[in-house]
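Submission sheet (multi-component)
Chains listed below:
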Amino acid sequence: MGTKVLTHNVQRLEGQIDIPGDKSISHRSVMFGAIANGKTTVTNFLKGEDCLSTISCFQKLGVKIEETGDSLVIEGKGWDHLTEPSSVLNVGNSGTTIRLMLGLLSGRPMHTTFIGDDSIGKRPMKRVITPLREMGAILDGRNNGDYTPLSLRGGGLRPISYQLPIASAQVKSSIILAALQAKGTTTIVEPAQTRDHTERMIRQFGGHIETDNLTITISGPQTLKGTQVNVPGDISSAAFFLVAGAIVEEGKILLRNVGLNPTRTGIIDVLNKMGAKMTIHPNKDEEFEPVGDITIEPSHLTGTVIEGDLIPRLIDEVPIIALLATQANGKTIIKDAEELKVKETNRIDTVVNELLKLGADITATDDGMIINGPTKLHGSVVSSHGDHRIGMMLAVASLICTGELTLEEADAIAVSYPNFFSDLSQLIN
Ligand SMILES: O=C(O)C1=C[C@@H](OP(=O)(O)O)[C@@H](O)[C@H](O)C1
Ligand SMILES: C=C(OP(=O)(O)O)C(=O)O
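Outcome: structure written.
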């Protein structure tokens, strides 16, 4: 399944990359476009496999979605025009698709069934099933609703007050999408701030939502209006080049059009704390999501502690931060990150096991990992284990390996970054 022998011993990375569209915002643009009234045009939509799964699920619900030139056009006809699908909704590898769609369809008076790939089959769904059942949706699935296949009969929702037991933007967004359809006011309290793209997009589509520190208040029912969405570049994709640029010996990289939403910029805080040579140039004129350009250069790095409220702001960047830490002086401790165990793989175990094969000094803990650096990495045969972020982390690691690195299951990278290897090779030549 897509074995790749990667370039090793790269001394210099030089050039610029336009960072592809944000995965979280791309998913949401289709979802909001589908439930809004009127046309939504999306530019810089991420054509990664996860977002294509979201498109195909909404097409099965009767929504017309087409590519026109560089844009994606969604013909929204409002909540009532989503139609009962005649076959199962397959979310592929995408946790965001299934968890947000469960909330979105909880208020629809129809039956839907969800399946996904082997990885989705291991990811916990109880976290969304519990609040959605409390709101009145009828949900069931394997192991009393914790795993796919899942079935849903929606309709007639009531508002709830809900204290989120975990910091999860997917759970928060699922409840918000249900609350938009429930008559009355829903209140959600987060244990820590998570990405707020759903909240921002509700306002962009003409809806109302109030946020006060960790409390979110939303009244329903609401109808939304189609609009124009320009998706910023994904900071979670940029992260691989930020680390690559910092750990090679020479050169300078410019990353253009990177989303700089403060709920996502934990990686920038970490790079700054570790002493990276990085400059941020914010664009001034973005209305809904902040964007900017970033330059990164080879850096003398120091180990650090990454914990607490910082974790949700960099949750998808932990694999690449672990690699960064192998090149820093001293100890890096990552804690409070047990959520990593329920991602596409158990990202604590996968990161530690694969980096050990390259010679890293890294140990798994119950809620994170401990890395001592700097260590010289050597090539080996490693695998993404079907996890796109592990695949890209290992591809960046290959740049500084002394011998050849063979990456198995490299094709998983297309889940979030189909052009990753061509963008990377532009910097090498
Ligand atoms: O809301 C989203 O778009 C996402 C939220 C995060 O998941 P959790 O909500 O499970 O933390 C993140 O890991 C995922 O890649 C995308
Ligand atoms: C965890 C991720 O995505 P999802 O939960 O949507 O599968 C990710 O992209 O790293």
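Remark: The longest helix spans residues 23-35.
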